[in-house]
Input
Amino acid sequence: MTLSIIDGQIEKRIDPTAKIHPNAVIGKDVTIGPHVYIGEGVKIGNGVIIEANVVIEKWVTIGNDCHIHYGTIIGNTTQDKKYKGEKSYVEIGHRNDIREYVTINRATEKGGKTLIGNDNLFLTSVHIAHDCVIGNNVVISNAAQLAGHLQIGNNVIIGGMTGILQFTRIGDFAMVGGYSSVRQDIPPHMLVEGNPAVIRTLNSIGMDRHNYTNEQKKAMKDVYKIFYRSSLNTTQAIEKIRKEIKETEEVKGFIEFVMTESKNGIMKRGSADKVGDSNTD
Output
């Protein structure tokens, strides 16, 4: 077994049953468990733990201090019928915790990338399809299924057993309830659930957890009321928001998200029979 080993690698932490491609690059202080397969063009950062029976197929970059648990498969061929064998990639940032049996596919087109940021937690049996872009501090719960070309912002929480349609966008600090079927874009700071999923309320708890100021929370509550609890159409609502609400970073981000071209449309508000919206009053 030939390894491309960065200076300082502790070789005894690589199990002898692991199979590693000759041009794979393994960082310092990496632990590689039994029956791991690491393929062509893979780069593993420092301090990574790769547990037994993991497959990192090819053209994958993994940042520092990630923990990849038993049976995970990263960098396998996209499940897109348009794929014809082109060279494509997965790039994963630092300090990600990827639990058992997660699958992360490479992109479809030549040179394309499936991108994952830093400090994320993907729980057991999550599937992340080709060309997804996931930000930082995202939690995806057990068996959630993400179709291709998703764009997921920072500090998003996705409940277990959720399915998300291809090309969907999810804004920063959004929360998706478990067992939901997400078919449209979710603006930042919204809480959604259902089959099909609809906007239920503002994610006020998420704002509290991240120490939003009273000014920031009030601005987003006012945005929510105008956009989701008035009879105005999108253009009218955005115009009213711009005129009446101070443009904090959160308000600016909401406007930019809603005004960006969408393949699936912006998610509508549903009834509050399951998740009340009294906290926006």
